[in-house]
């Protein structure tokens, strides 16, 4: 019972921080993407500490609470896309861990990252074209936006790896020990 209570308490703390970061993204406009990225990284921490089911529950709870509490609902949708990506790559990583017979698992993992990202990113860019851009955008500009998203994904993913390996790696012993 102690372990479950501790897990629930820690998850609740991370959920509160996630919602605060989403709300702060609406208040501190210059740091919106940074705060939303940081909020989405908590999804990965929950998945790594407690599993995919707990991570999915955490993700759904964060999105629902974000819609209830965050002033800017568009930022909650942005968090939802980022959190889905994090949950998806963690699921792929766990799936690949169970299959050591696959060659080039690292390459499969990187391809999976870009597939998951583009499943979310490209439909959003196309569907919300008018909302994302102040004026009509040419097809060439849309291609540039899609390619720019691939570069942004690389940076976002590298930052996530850094947070997991270095920041969470150092804090984990203090918080979970």
What does this structure look like?
Keywords: Membrane, Transmembrane, Transmembrane helix. The chain has 177 residues and is mainly alpha-helical. The two termini are 17 Å apart. Helices cover 86% and strands 0% of the residues. The model has no long low-confidence stretch (mean pLDDT 87).
Question: What attributes characterize this protein structure?
Answer:
7 helices, 86% helix, 177 residues
Largest sheet: none
- Rounded to an integer in angstroms, the radius of gyration calculated over CA atoms is 17 Å
| Strands, total number | 0
- Named at the architecture level, the CATH assignment is Orthogonal Bundle
Series of H and E elements: HHHHHHH
The CATH class is identified as: Mainly Alpha
In round numbers, the mean pLDDT is 87
Annotation field: number of helices: 7
Poorly predicted regions are: none
Assign the CATH topology: Arp2/3 complex 21 kDa subunit ARPC3
> How many separate domains?
1
Shape: globular
What is the percentage of strand-forming residues?
Answer: under 5%
Which structural category do the helix and sheet elements fall into?
Answer: mainly alpha
Distance between the termini: 17 Å
Helix content class: over 70%
Transmembrane segments: 12-38, 50-68, 74-96, 108-128, 140-156
Keywords: Membrane, Transmembrane, Transmembrane helix
